[in-house]
Amino acid sequence: MSLAALVRRNKQYDFWFSVISIMCVLFSLLALTTLLLDLALEGIPRLSLNFLISFPSRFADKAGILSAWVGTFWVMFITAFISIPLGILSGLYLEEYAPKNKLTQFIEINISNLSAVPSIIFGLMALGIFVHSLHLGQSLLTAGLTLSLLILPIIIVATREAVRAIPTSIREASYALGATQWQTVKHHILPYSFGGIATGVIIALSRAIGETAPLITVGALTFIAFLPHSFMDPFTVLPIQLFNWISRPQAEFHVNAAGAGVILLTLTLLMNAVAIIIRYRVRKKITW
């Protein structure tokens, strides 16, 4: 085959590959748009102030999501309070301080593997450790600890990737001026990698806010008509409430589930939007 024929064949392959890729993207966007429109058209008319400030009820027209969104708020607060500092510090240690030996490699491999473990496994582990061994019960604290374990590997990996992206020349320049390793990390590595770390943290929290399986495993209630007053009280969250309503045969409860789904989806999209804005602003300020 001549060189010209080979070039023509490769160009044809590139063309058809581009066409197939664009068709796949358009099909995915069409399916996603259809699902979102169906959810919005069914759920948005149900949204009202009473829907937000009312407790669940046997009657669909009187049921609300007050206990669910309050429980979601406290569970996410506990999750963020535990996982963010622990995940960032662990990522910094592994990338900047940990010696490069077989033990470190073993830890790194296991952290990467934990990122792909199904969430139900974390729920079963939390059931055995937090509920039965530590006797924390079916509480907000148990839920927060469970979701913290779930997203901790994601935050660690995101932190390491953000720190690893910092050019070595910045570290060398800092050391050349007499800075210690901690001063270099504090004044250069962390500020420059903040955008990537924040993006990873918010994406991890976005995953946690929609989790259902591990919370059902540790005892989240499907019907709760009171607000928790401490971290040891029972709880429910938006995904659990949505699951409860969608499993009922009455069409009115399905409309309630669609309304709760709109709110949950809105919260997730807002968290991802915040991550994008933070990343854009931080990158805009940084000049290498």
- State the low-pLDDT regions, or none: none
**CATH class value of the largest domain:** Mainly Alpha
The percent of residues in helical segments reads over 70%
Q: What separation lies between the terminal Cα atoms?
A: 48 Å
Brief characterization of the structure:
With 288 residues, this protein is an all-alpha fold. The protein has eleven helices and no strands.
Structure description:
The chain has 288 residues and is an all-alpha fold. It has 2 domains: 3-46; 49-285, MetI-like (MetI-like fold, Orthogonal Bundle), CATH 1.10.3720.10. Helices cover 76% and strands 0% of the residues. It has 11 helices and no strands. It has helices at 3-43, 49-53, 66-97, 102-114, 119-133, 140-164, 168-176, 181-209, 213-217, 238-246, 251-285. Helix 3 packs antiparallel against helix 8. The mean pLDDT is 85.
Identify the notable features of this structure and list them briefly.
globular, MetI-like fold, mainly alpha, 76% helix, single chain
Topology of helices and strands:
Elements: H1 3-43, H2 49-53, H3 66-97, H4 102-114, H5 119-133, H6 140-164, H7 168-176, H8 181-209, H9 213-217, H10 238-246, H11 251-285
Helix pairs in contact: 1-11, 3-6, 3-8, 3-10, 5-6, 6-8, 7-8, 8-11, 10-11
